[in-house]
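Lay summary. Proteins are chains of building blocks that fold into shapes, and those shapes determine what they do. In this project we predict the shape from the chain. Here is one chain we studied, written as its sequence of building blocks.
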Amino acid sequence: MTNDNYLRILYTLLGVSIFVHYWFVVLFTVLILIDLFFSGEYKKILKDRSLIVVEIVLGFSIVMAMIYDNWYGLIAIPILLCVMVGRYYTLIMESSTKKNNLELLCKVSVLPFVTGVIEYLITRKRAGYFAFHNPNYLGSVMMMIAVANLYFAFEKKSKWNFMIFFLNIATLILSGSRSALIGITVGVFVLFLLLFLKENILLRQ
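And here is the predicted shape, written in a compact code that computers can read:
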């Protein structure tokens, strides 16, 4: 197996793990970082301008944390590493790989509904503490993937994506995240607006 294929698998597993448990997210993020540094792949993104700005800002935070013995400031280090993982994916991975991964994640996003219902029935509290550590994190993730599912429902005329969209909304409601509810409302409105504008442009051609 080539290193490129290995990285593709790791990134796919990282995406899937978002809907399983946050410890798996940590695990696959660490595995990707190890591969990026040992294979030298990290060099491909070091010259990226946006990453350089992030490095300067977080580097300043690290220096100030050491000067003033504010060790909480060292959280900038894992933040920088996570940014590197995300930036490598957006810059280096092929568009086809990203689209395939997104379609897979849309299908996998049904898992939090199952775990969320079980968690609510057992605890009688907001869903999201078990797999996401915080219900608001669950709400945020469901907000984003719900918009993606709704997009594919119209783009591919897929009943499955449409059904999963409603399961995403149900999971979001189980999380009790009010900010996520506002976010999904805005997201759906913007998506319908973009689809409407796209349809009008195609009709005029």
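What the prediction tells us: The two ends are 47 Å apart (CA to CA).
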